[in-house]
Amino acid sequence: MKILVINCGSSSIKYQLFDMQDESVLATGLVEKIGTESSIIKHQVPEKEELVIASEILDHRVGMKKVLDLLMDPEDGVIKSAEEVAAVGHRVVHGGENFSSSVVIDSNVRRAIRETIDLAPLHNPPNLLGIDAAQAQLPHAVHVAVFDTAFHQTMPDYAYMYPLPYVLYRKYKIRRYGFHGTSHKYVSEQASKFLGRPLDELKIVSCHIGNGASITAVQNGKSVDTSMGMTPLEGLMMGTRSGDIDPAIVPFVITKEDLTLAEVNSMMNKHSGLLGISGISGDMREVTEAMENGNDYARLAIDMYVYKIKKTIGAYIAAMNGVDVILFTAGVGENAALIRERVCEGLTFFGVELDPALNAERSKKERRISTQRSKVDVLVIPTNEELMIARETQALVQ
């Protein structure tokens, strides 16, 4: 079975085509700058040079058609006919309370996605555009929605509710939803396989640390708490996002700086975090280099970043009354040995003991970085959200 995985942004289409017989990637690519005359398609087939094409792509339907044309191209393609694509898995950011698992897309699902646009105004509209475009080009295929929020629907009410007037929840569904659910589910399952231990017997703290970052407490295979909230702004300090702050800061800054609410929202999402404190970048590599060259603002930014991760891990160990596995994933989590080291230095009370040599290894493989004596397994598990979407899609089709 061949499954196409689609992740649509407002002006982009990311895609991967999988052969689910062995879960191999047949092709991968990205359509950028949709809606302009300078659109670019990057198409990659394993063991071949990346193909880069400049083309005018005015909307997502045209973009999807060009993707399929490339997949079927006699020289650069990997399939002979669109009929070979049995199903399409669509990443959808927000499913609200409607979906606790992936679903085959029908008119009711489309309506529910549309009704949650207020909760994800930047993501759900382009996700719907991608569904429209793919269904138009692949009407024979089964189309499946895989929600970032679905994995977290197992949280208990005391974990997802905010201490606001309950009427706000009843009227507007203001609550914690959490994100990166597809990634947290994937790496938790992979950790279970790596250790050879049943997932339903493990207490896992999953640290998805990238430009956007979240931590999830996974108990017996289910999310019981997560650091992101109603939006992806809450929780950890991130590349450009503030994470948790005193909410009274917002009206204070509006008054003192004569800013609009939209400007403050932009400040918290795009100009805070590592970038805001260091004044250099939201990229951990650049901030780390500046710290090593003696920049004290960069040092402060990394100290704050690490401290918040340690605090959250500690809170989730308390929430689960113990921990068996702490895992790191995503860009920073997989590649920044210094951050993993600094975080684990503050967790020795729980029996965490990092192996410096294993932690320093540069590898794209799943691996243990704790010592044999460590009471907690510390793992690096590269995430693969696209493969998780393909697996969820395959399960529903079958």
TrEMBL record:
Source organism superkingdom: Bacteria
The protein's name: Acetate kinase
GO molecular function, one term: acetate kinase activity
GO CC terms of this entry: cytoplasm
Source organism per UniProt: Thermoactinomyces intermedius
Cofactor note: Mg(2+). Can also accept Mn(2+).
Swiss-Prot/TrEMBL keywords: ATP-binding, Cytoplasm, Kinase, Magnesium, Metal-binding, Nucleotide-binding, Transferase
Subunit structure: Homodimer.
GO biological process terms on file: acetate metabolic process; acetyl-CoA biosynthetic process
Assigned protein family: Belongs to the acetokinase family.
Name of encoding gene: ackA
Listed Pfam families: Acetate_kinase
